[in-house]
Every structure is written in C-alpha cells, then in structure tokens.
From TrEMBL:
Start-end of Low complexity biased regions: 1-25
Predominant location category: cytoplasm
EC number(s) reported in the record: 3.6.5.3
Name of this protein: Eukaryotic translation initiation factor 5B
Family according to the record: Belongs to the TRAFAC class translation factor GTPase superfamily. Classic translation factor GTPase family. IF-2 subfamily.
A UniProt-annotated Pfam family: GTP_EFTU
Cited PROSITE patterns: G_TR_2 (PS51722)
Biased composition (Basic and acidic residues): 26-79
Coiled coil start-end: 141-170
C-alpha cells in the first residue's frame, strides 16, 4: 500500500520523452502536404515563366516577319523600277530573246545569208556554222534513207514478182520427208526453223503422227542469206513442204507412208550414237522407194566443250572450235561414215561431195543452236533444183494422198492430205477410200496451217477457195469418218458418167491398208485418235511376243456403244474384255458402263505405255489363272524305286526313287500299271527329302526319299505293287488342260511325249 501510494521519482535531467505513434504519423502527413504544396507552387511559377517566354518569342517572330515583308516589298519596288528603266531582263524576256536568236541562226544557216552583222559576236558565228553543218548532215541522212527505202521497195517488188513467177511457173515445192531413229531430233530441227515448239508438246517427246509443214521460200532465203553469198544460188522453187515422220519403232506404217510421198528425204542421225535400229529401217524404206536422201548429222552441240554459234553455217562454227573439239568431230564423223559404209552407202560431208549421185551428203547440224540448218536448207534447195527438176514439175493430173483422219472440234471429221500435184477447189466432188467402201462427198472447206505452222498443231487455219500443189491441206466434208489413211483422193468431174465413176471407185484401193486391220473372233478392242495411229498400234500389237489378238477397232473418243461391243468378249474370253485406248478421250457414260460391266479400259498417249499397262494386266490375269490351275495341274513323271530303298512299305510309304522322265513335285498323284494293263492308283506325294533336306521338285536323273500318302489304307509295297515296277504320275483330262493353260513352258519335249503315252494308257480322250 505504501509503495503504491509513494510519490513517483522525478525524471533524470536531460532525458527526452518518446513521441506518441499517432503524433509521429500526423507529423509525416503534414510534411508531405507541405512538400506537395511547394512543388505545386513551383510548377505554377514555371508554367507562368514558360508562357511569358512563348509570348515574347511570338512577338519577336511577328516583328521579324513584318521586317522581311517590308524588305521584300522594298526589293520588289526597286526591281520594278529597274525593269521599267530597262536595266533588268526577265526570264520570259530572256526566253523570247533566245528563241529569236535561234530563229535567226536557223534562218541564216538554211538560207546561206550574210553573217557580217555578227562579226563582233563569235558565239553567234559559231552557232550559225554548227547549225549549217547539222542541216547538211541531216540532208545527207535523209537522202541515204530515201535511197535505201527506194532500193528496198525495188527488192520487194522484185521478190513479189519472183514469187508470182514461181507460183505461175510449172515448178512446185519439193516434198521432203524427215526420217530417223527416235529421239534423234527430227521434230526439233523443224521447230528450230519454224521457231515453234511442236516437239515438247508431243507425248514423251515422241512424234506420234505424221505432220506436214510448209516453209515459204522467204524463210529459206532468210535462213540461207549468209551462206548463199558465195554460192549465188538462184531460187526457183516456191518453198519446201516437209513431212515429219515418227522415229519410234511402232510407227513403221507411218514412216512408210511418209517416204512414199516424198521427192527427197532427210535422214537424221545422232552423231553421238550413230546408226540405230530405225535408221537402218529408214534406209531400207528409202532404197525400196528409190528415194534420194541426205543425212543430217545432228546434235553436234553435244561434242565435248563445243562452243555454239546460233544459226551459223556449220563450217563457220567449226572454225571457231578448239583443236581437240575438231578432232572429236572428225572421229565421230569417220565412225558414222564407216557405219553407213557397212550399210552399202558411200558418204562424205556435203562440202566435199563432188558427185551427189554416188555419195550421200552429210550435213552436221544442231537442233538446239541452229548450227548447220542454213547448210541443210540450201543443200535441199540446190539438189531439188539441179537433180529433181523433172520430178517437181507441176502436172495437171491430181495426185493427192490421205495422211490422217481426225475429229476436230467445230469441224467434225476431217482428213489431212498431201496435195502432190494438181489443184483442189472448194466445192469439188471427191472420192476417197473408206473402211466400208468408196466415199463420195463434196469439199466444204480447204484449210492450211498458218505459214511455218504444222498440220498436227491446233490453231487458226487459213481458208482457201483453191489450193495448188505441193501443199498439206485439211479438208472438211461430210461422211469422212470412215476414210482410210493412206488411200488416194480423186476429184469427180461434173460430167462424169457411171462407167467413169466405177473406174474411179476401182482406183480407190484400200486392200493393202485393210490387211493391217484384220481382226479375230477373240481378242482385245483397240481405239485410237487417228487411223494412222491405229495402224501403228495394230502393227505393234501384231509384233508383240506373243502377238496380242484384236477383235474390234475404232477411231475417235470412246462411247457407250464401244463398251457394248467389248462385252461380248466376257463370255468368249474374259481376259480380252479390255479396250486399249491410244490418245483418245473416254466419255463419263462409257467409263461408268465399263466399270459396271467389268470392262477394263487402258488409256495412254504413248504406245509403249499402253503396252506396259496391258502387259501388267495380262501378267496379273496369268498369275491368278496359274494359281488356280496349280491345284489341278499334274506334271508328267516316270520314276523307278532305287534297289533296296523301300524304307516303309505301309501308309505312309517311304521310297528312295530316281526320276527317269519329267519332274516330280509335292502333291503329285502316283500310279503304276500291271502286266494286264490295268492301272493301280498308289497315292499322293506328301514330301521329298535328299540328305535330310526337303526338296520341292525332282528332275530327270535326281534321287530322293519320297513319302507317299496312299489312296487306300491297306496299300502295301510288295503286295499291291512291287518295288521293281515303274511309277508314273496319274493324270486326267482336267489336269492336262490346266497344265497346257498355265505351265506349258515348264514341261520339256520329253515330258509332253510322256503325257501322250499316259493318255493312251489311261484312255484319256
């Protein structure tokens, strides 16, 4: 109690009382508030200062602009006063003065007037002299241009007159056939001359049809101008008509037809490969037709390190090459000449040829760079004009051959013809060979390709009222769908009587062509875009090993009616219920109907591809049939039991055997014959072992242990047959048929003799 009530001790001197937390917080807030007020006050003062400076700056700029405006106004007033006083020339006045001066210079220069007034003005005198020289030069140039134009007009008039003379002359364009092995560059050579690209547009780069191109004499002149400066050859022909034939071996019919039309031929040989299969065939054709030809030794640009010179004459290009390049050329040239010699042909490069009747001329060319093409064109022109004048003399009698039959959108069925001699006119009545007999119709239109275009290439055609030979022409008329490529075309005179008409019908002989379109009762159906292509495809199928039989043929797109024809083969021989379609379209309806009926349609735009598809299909069909026949077929065998090699006499019988004839396979049924001729069926081969290893087949002279599952469980060796008896395979009519159908090539001659012997013993019919 006393301690509680006792007074508290006084605080020590100098001690400070600790501030309260609330008081401390208040002090901090007051300090922050005061700092914020001071910052705001400072910001206001800064803003007022900046505004004052901006007002002062605006005032200074205003004063400056006013001073500049006053200065410009003063300068303008002073300039106006000077101009008024004539002390300053304006830009407009200066331009006017310069123009006046230039007019004076031109006037004095043109008139040749006196320049005495300007003796003290050297600059003016120099300008007048320069202008006079300029005018003199211009007059000289204009005079030269006028003379050149006059000369060009004279040349053009002379050219037109020469062409008119050529057209009115009795000389026609020679027909040239270009031939050779596939991929030697035949079409590419023509492309280079035409500046077109037919070859790349063809399937696989292989020419599938015959094409005809007309090269006007203007083109020949332009291409050969440099080369002809020395030769000075005068052109007498109106142009060159060149037929490009396929080199693929499947197109021998087309090649033959082309070579029968031509006056002279170009045989293209690849200098890198020399003579090839179709080269020899082409040589044989040309010899058979007694057709003169020259050789284009193509692809010289493939020689190692060859430096091409576009469109140059070959000798000029050769002179530019390195020594080792020239040596390689000479080596390959000699090799080609040697190969031609082996074909019985003497040959030499054309510039060394002194006797064109005894030596074949070789013209080195490049379809890629155009080198040697001038040489080729000039030589063709020279030879035809010099040696074939009689052959290319125009005759009145019509000579016209059908190359192709085509369906053209908007035109219908058309025929491409080569007019060798004579004239065709729009409205003429013509007769041409057809599949179902002679076709008599009227020409609706005569069409030719644009100059330097080819008949095969779709494009704008030139319409003619009449066409003179020689020319490739497309004829539109009714009832041409059955016209036969390769047949002759004749015109029927208006006054033709019945006797004359019958004579013309007899002349339209298509037997030779129809022989190539023979069909069989059982075979595939074949369809192609043109008759020429159809012939080539049929020829190819005929030459296959084994040949592929053909039941029906047609030209043009495939429709439902074509499928309907093929369905008949489903009952006769189902594996031939197929259509081989070459370069033709298949209608949607036809495709759906074929799928529903189980008809196979193989399409391709290259014959080899079509053949590959069909071969793969037949291989699959054969394998399936073989697998099915394997269950029935029994291979013939004759065997003996090896002495002391009956390892097990009861089921399963195990014997050591040696094959005498034929072959023994697992699964083969076995039998033997008793002395009375009766047949005893032993059983079926379960397995065969030799040196503890299973073997699937035993052939003549081979031995093995054979396990046999007997047909009758009681069969025992020594009781039902003896080990001395000869054992044979047990065959039936069905097993023989299956063997013939699927395994004929696997049975040798002795084996088939054994089959015949067993047939007699087993009395199989």
């Amino acid at each position: 109690f006393f301690s509680v009530m006792a007074p508290k001790a006084a605080p020590k001197a100098g001690a400070k009382k600790a501030p309260n937390a609330a008081v401390k917080a208040m002090q901090e807030r007051l300090a922050k508030q005061k700092a914020a007020e001071e910052a705001e006050k400072k910001a206001l003062e800064e803003e007022k200062r900046r505004e004052k400076e901006e007002r002062e700056e605006e005032e200074r700029q205003k004063q400056k602009k006013e001073e500049e405006a006053k200065k410009k106004a003063q300068e303008k007033r002073e300039k106006e006063q000077l101009i008024k006083a004539g002390k300053i020339v304006t830009e407009k006045q200066k331009k006017q003065m310069d123009a006046n001066k230039l007019r004076m210079i031109e006037l004095l220069a043109a008139s040749g007037g006196s320049v005495a007034a300007y003796q003290n003005d050297p600059e003016m005198l120099a300008a007048i002299e320069a202008k006079r020289k300029e005018l003199a030069d211009r007059r000289a140039i204009d005079k030269a241009k006028l003379e050149a134009k006059k000369k060009e007009e004279e040349v053009e008039l002379a050219r037109i007159e020469r062409l008119r003379e050529m057209q009115n002359s009795n000389i026609r364009s020679p027909i040239i056939c270009i031939m050779g092995h596939v991929d030697t560059g035949k079409t590419k050579l023509l492309d280079k001359i035409r500046r077109t690209n037919v070859q790349s547009g063809e399937a696989g780069g292989i020419t599938q049809q015959i094409g005809a191109s007309f090269f006007p004499i203007d083109t020949v002149l332009a291409k050969t101008a440099d080369l002809n400066e020395d030769m000075k050859l005068e052109y007498q022909i109106p142009g060159l008509l060149i037929i490009d034939t396929p080199g693929h071996e499947a197109f021998s019919n087309l090649r033959s037809r082309g070579s029968s039309l031509c006056d002279i031929a170009i045989l293209v040989i690849d200098i890198m490969h020399g003579i090839e299969q179709q080269t020899r065939e082409s040589i044989q054709m040309l010899r058979a037709k007694k057709c003169p030809f020259i050789v284009a030794l193509n692809k010289v640009d493939r020689l190692y390190d060859w430096k091409p010179k576009d469109d140059a004459p070959f000798r000029k290009s050769l002179d530019m090459q390195q020594k080792y390049v020239k040596q390689e050329f000479e080596t390959r040239l000699a090799s080609t000449m040697e190969q031609l010699s082996s074909e019985g042909l003497n040959s030499v490069v054309y510039w060394k040829n002194r006797d064109f009747t005894k030596y074949v001329s070789l013209v080195p060319t490049s379809a890629h760079s155009g080198e040697g093409i001038p040489d080729l064109l000039l030589l063709m022109t020279q030879l035809t004009q010099k040696h074939l004048t009689g052959k290319i003399t125009l005759k009145d009698q019509l000579d016209c051959v059908v190359l192709e039959v085509k369906v053209i959108e908007g035109l219908g069925h058309t025929i491409d013809v080569i007019l060798v001699n004579g004239i065709l006119r729009e409205g003429d009545t013509i007769i041409v060979g057809g599949l179902n007999g002679p076709i008599i119709t009227h020409i609706r239109a005569l069409l030719t390709p644009q100059p330097l275009k080819e008949m095969r290439v779709k494009g704008e055609y030139v319409h003619h009222k009449e066409v003179r030979a020689a020319q490739g022409v497309k004829i539109t008329a009714v009832e041409l769908e059955h016209a036969v490529a390769g047949s002759y075309l004749y015109t029927v005179p208006e006054d033709c009587d019945d006797e004359e008409l019958e004579r013309l019908k007899d002349k339209v002989n298509v037997d030779k062509i129809l022989k190539g379109i023979e069909t069989t009762d059982r075979g595939v159906s074949v369809q192609a875009s043109t008759l020429g292509s159809l012939e080539a495809l049929l020829s190819f199928l005929k030459d296959c090993k084994p040949p592929i039989p053909v039941a029906t043929v047609s030209v043009g797109p495939i429709h439902k009616k074509h499928i309907l024809k093929t369905t008949t083969m489903l009952e006769k021989q189902p594996e031939y219920a197929v259509i081989l379609a070459f370069d033709v379209a298949v209608s949607k309806e036809a495709r759906e109907y074929a799928d529903a009926e189980g008809i196979k349609i193989f399409t391709a735009d290259i014959i080899y591809h079509l053949f590959d598809q069909f071969t793969a299909y037949m291989k699959d069909v054969t394998e399936k049939a073989k697998s099915k026949d394997a269950e029935v077929a029994v291979f013939p065998v004759e065997m003996k039991v090896v002495p002391n090699c009956v390892f097990h006499a009861r089921d399963p019988i195990v014997l050591g055997v040696e094959i005498q004839t034929g072959q023994l396979r697992v699964g083969t049924p076995l039998c033997c014959f008793h002395d009375d001729g009766s047949c005893f069926q032993i059983g079926r081969v379960m397995s065969m072992e030799r040196e503890h290893k299973e073997v699937p087949i035993l052939k003549k002279g081979e031995q093995a242990a054979v396990k046999i599952q007997v047909k009758d469980p009681v069969t025992t060796v020594g009781r039902h047959f003896t080990a001395d008896q000869t054992i044979y395979s047990y065959i039936t009519r069905e097993s023989i048929d299956a063997l013939k159908a699927s395994f004929k090539d696997e049975v040798d001659k002795d084996g088939w003799k054994l089959v015949i012997s067993l047939k007699k013993k087993l009395q199989i019919m």
